[in-house]
Prior knowledge:
nine-stranded mixed sheet; six-stranded parallel sheet; about 30% strand
Amino acid sequence: MAEKLRWGIMGCAQIATNSVMPAIQESESGVIGAVASRGLDKSSAVAEEFGIGKAYGSYEELLEDKDIDAVYIPLPNHLHREWVIRAAEAGKHVLCEKPVALNSRETAEMVEACRKAGVHFAEAYMYRHHPRIAELQDIIARGEIGELRSIRGTFTYNDAADTSNIRFKSAWGGGSLYDVGCYPLSAARLLFGAEPEAVTVQAIFSPEHDNVDMMASGLVEFPGGTSLIFDCGMWAYNRQLLEILGTEGMIEVPMPFNARFEDAGFIVHKGGEAKQFEATGANPYVCQADNFAAAVFGGKPLMAGDDPVLNMTLIETCLDSARRRVRIEL
Length: 330
């Protein structure tokens, strides 16, 4: 039997119970050994639902479990720093939900704690693990659409009526840039293979929603005059799209961040024609679990060690630009 990574789940958020936990159980390389919550009733109910042998009524108990190799942290954003660092100090590898922290300073502390402890640390951008991303990168690298010129990314939905939502708590890291803007921002960095030089962002800050940014749009300048034009929102019509524009063609990617199987295709526009590509379908959460385990067992990190810091720097700079209504150089 192949070696299995023994996971502990730190919190019972919907992203854990609806997506990540089923994916770990479906993966080839992982098994869930325990689940923890701040109340034993909740963790016990989740453990029973998923057939997990151990349930804990505190996160501390989970970190003390010597039978757990790695923890998945889906806690609210403002709790990420504390529990990533404590998990690292307990010798656990860490997969933490995005956005990984509230700012780049916190993120750097988390990265350093994991480096010092000798554990793997990754931010849970599951879409990056979908096979389609590698296929898109290959098309770009082959020059199929010429030289890259611009990327346009959108990710919006409307949940504004639910004013109790934790995404609308400013001190907890709420807002559209943290929640969904991070996707096109991270995708642009990945596909350009470069770091941004400046940002200009405007946003709607809503007093009804603790003054978080409920909608944001902006321009992110990359080297050589290339750019990302993006918008994100939690108070707008549901939509997702990624357009990758080159000198000779364009790639249109519907559902770029949540695609699985039947919706994994994309369209390449070139020479006046549009060609549909049926990309390899997959559950990106399963791919993420298997890739994380491979990194642990193989000793090679999923992404460059400073990637979470660079990504968080971009997010916080976009938010700063929106608040001050100015262009900011990175």
